[in-house]
Amino acid sequence: AQKITQTQPGMFVQEKEAVTLDCTYDTSDPSYGLFWYKQPSSGEMIFLIYQGSYDQQNATEGRYSLNFQKARKSANLVISASQLGDSAMYFCAMSPVLYGNNRLAFGKGNQVVVIP
Amino acid sequence: KAGVTQTPRYLIKTRGQQVTLSCSPISGHRSVSWYQQTPGQGLQFLFEYFSETQRNKGNFPGRFSGRQFSNSRSEMNVSTLELGDSALYLCASSGDLAGNTGELFFGEGSRLTVL
Asked: Measured over all CA atoms, what is the biggest interatomic distance in chain B, rounded to whole angstroms?
């Protein structure tokens, strides 16, 4: 079974500052994928970034980067230069790649509020 | 390109009733998966359909069922509703599994309230 842990309380972030969201995971699968999604108040889940367990380099997508530390089983999301539109819930998720990537196990999420 | 469309967006039912939710995936996507989101349990995987076949199933009772049509549109049904079924039901679509970056495209969800 896969387990995702996100334990940070809600965060207030100053606009233009960077923020790091913690995510640790546990799995017995030899290969897996790690994801971050953003959920604004509208409810829609928005894909941010993906990291495969065999990827040597940390994934980056614009202002988003994933700090992947396989030995520590952590996959922290870094958002640089926060914007007001970044206010949302952020979910870390993983899937067993061997079985495809459409069955995701999600963490409980981190609430981020960006203040001007 | 139209996104994932879920209907209805909001609905209220009473215990014991049944409900059907619909999801139209992005054109060309053959995989549709469903998730339940509640404050207590968070996001939980319900099931996934690919080319009209259920490919994965989460740990939900048999009251939760789904199907996919030849045009990839999917429906999920919950029978004999319980108060605990109140949740946001999210549908997600993707093209296929092989070699992609894992991006699922989610709809805005159907918010079900059971009274």
From this structure: 44
Interface membership of B30 toward A (CB under 8 Å): no
Residue of A nearest to B97 (CA): A100
Q: How many CB contacts within 8 angstroms connect chain A with chain B?
A: 65
Q: Which residues contact A10 (CB under 8 A, 6 or more apart)?
A: A110, A111, A112, A113
Cα–Cα distance for residue pair B28/A56, rounded to 1 Å: 32
Q: Measured between beta carbons, which residues in chain A are less than 8 angstroms from residue B48?
A: 100, 102-103
Neighbour-count burial for B87-96, b at 16+ CB within 10 Å, e otherwise: bbbbbbbbee
Tens-digit pLDDT profile for residues A69-104:
999 999 999 999 999 999 999 999 998 765 555 788
Whether the bond into B8 is cis, omega within 30 of 0: yes
For tokens 């065999």, name the residue.
A54
Residues of A in contact with B55 (CB under 8 A): 100, 102
**pLDDT tens across A33-71, in order?**
899 999 999 888 999 998 988 888 999 999 999 999 999
A13 in contact with B at a CB cutoff of 8 Å? no
- For chain B, the average pLDDT equals 91
